[in-house]
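Reopening this one. Same input as before:
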Amino acid sequence: MKLDLHVHSRYSKDSLISLKSLKKKSLRTGICPIITDHNTIKGNIAYNCPILAEEISTLDGHVIGYFLTEHIRPKLTAIETIELIHEQGGLACIPHIFDNVRKNSLNDKEIAKKSDIIEIFNARVQRHSHNNLALDFAISNRKLKSVGSDAHWLPEFGKNYIEIEDFNSVKEFKKNLKKANFFTQRNSILYLIGTKFYNDTIRRII
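Same output, byte for byte:
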C-alpha cells in the first residue's frame, strides 16, 4: 500500500485541502493520506484514515503521534508529548527536524532520541542539507524512517509517499516500515509562502 504519512486537511487552520478533494485525488493516485492535522484528530477520524494521527505543537517544536487512541493537548514539552503518545501505544515521529527555516521545527537531538521515527524527507524543507541531517541522525541513532509531503495545498499531495506492506498492528507497521520504499519530490517554496500568507493575512480577514 502507498501512504503519505504527513498530510493536512481543512481541520488544520493553515490548510486549504478539503476531505472531499483529498479523497478524489487519493483514489486517482492510489496513495492513502494519513491526516496529521495540527492539534486535532477530527479530520483524521472524519476521513477514516487507517492510522489515527495528529501533529502536535509542543513547547519545543512539532511532534507527530501515530496510532493514537485519543487527542493529545498541545503546549506541553516535547518529552511529555512523546510520553503521552507512548502511553497510548503509539509511535512518536519528529517531522522536518533540523529545519531552522521554520520556527516550529524541533532541533534538540537529545529530545529526538526519545522518538520512534524521524521524518528524513519533508517535501516542504527547502534546503537539502536539512533533510540530509535528518537522515544522518536517523541512521546514527537507529530510528525508523519516514517521508511526507506535509501537504497544505492539494497539488502538494501525491508526490511523496512510502510503499509498505499491509499491516494490522503497530508492531507489523514498525517491521514493514524498515523495508518500505520511499518516493520523494520537493514541493515548490511557493506553497510554503502561500500557507504563511493565508495564515497571517487571509484567514484573519475571513
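So the earlier flakiness isn't reproducible anymore. For the record, The two ends are 38 Å apart (CA to CA).
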